[in-house]
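TL;DR need C-alpha cells for one chain.
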Amino acid sequence: MICAYDKIYLENCRRNFALMLDYAVNDLHYNLDDFFEMFLLSGIDRQIECGNPTYLVGKSGIELAKDIIFKVESKEIKNKAVCKIGKSREYWTGWAIAYFQWYSSIKFKDIVQSVPINKIIELYSPYHEMDIRHFCDKLISLIKQKNTKTNLSIYRKKFNLTQLELSKLTDIPLRTIQQYEQKQKNINNAKAEYLVKLSKILCCSVEDLIEKI
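>> reply
TL;DR here they are.
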C-alpha cells in the first residue's frame, strides 16, 4: 500500500488532527459532522493529503481549526483550548482517521462519503483500546460494503452502455469487463492499454477507473 506522505510527519499530523476535532467540538461547540464538512470545504484536507508540511506539522491542531473556520465562515476565533484530563472520543476519531488516510491514501472526502464521520466516532468502543491496524481493517471492510459498485460500472452506466457495447468499442473481451465489474479481477492491475481505451470511451481519466481499495 502506498502511503499518502512520508511517515516522519505522521505522528505530528495525527496529534494535530486529533486536537483539531477535539477543540472544534468540545471547546467551540461545533457539531462534528458540520465541522468536518467545513474541513472539506476549506481545502486544508487536500493540503494534508498531498503532504504539505505547513499543514502536517507547521500548525497546531487549534490553529488548524481556527484556519478552517476563518476560511469557511470568515470568523476569527479567540478562544483558547481548555485543559482536559484524558482524551475525548473526538480526539480519538481525529487521531484514528488521520492514520487511516495516511495508510490508505484515500481522500478524506471519499472516506466519509462511504463511512460518515458520525459512524466513525461510533467505532471508539472498542477500537480505541485496540491496535490502530484493527481500526483500519474495520474501516476498509465498511468502505467495501458501501462501495459494492466498481468505478468502471458507474461510468459505463453513466453513458448507458451495456457491457457488450463497451467491449466492442474498446476491443476488450466481454468476459474481462465482466470480471472487472464483478471484482473477480482487480482493475488496478489491468493492462495500461485497457485502462487507456476504457478512459477514452468513458470520457474519464485512468485514475477515475482505479478502485481506491
